[in-house]
Prior knowledge:
- By secondary structure, the protein is mainly β.
- It contains no helices and 18 strands.
Amino acid sequence: MRREIEINGFKGFLELRNGKGVVRFNGSEYEVEILSKDGDEFVISVSGERYLVRLIDEYVAFINGRLISYEYIERPPIKRVDGRTERSFVGFSKEYILSPLAGRVVEVLVKKGSNVKKGDTLVVLESMKMLIEVKSDRDGKVEEILVKQGDVVNKGQPLVKFVQDEK
């Protein structure tokens, strides 16, 4: 299996076969091996160092107790409660910041027209009694805020729209 992935805003590639493989990020390559699996918990080895990984959902995981967001770039279809499959939110272009999980908007920290830097917190979500900071994955200017405090959002739902690059 070879997949393009994004972890906390950094893009890379994951190649696994029979529980062993490599992860490539920023020109570096790391050997990866799944040592054990119990449901949604894994013990993995990355270049000889062990990590406990617990998947929260399809977009959030704990790695050694640290919350991270991840996604496969080629997102699977979303299953709806009524059993139908849809690709909602998948078609949004890169000028949107999407919610990494379902939750409630606790705070919106930016306004329309705000200039933000990569890593700035844009929105704070609450899910399962945890607060999750949704950070910007780029430098840019906010064109539109698509949520407000108290809104309930789905994972993959657009939260903030950036001004599209003029390039």
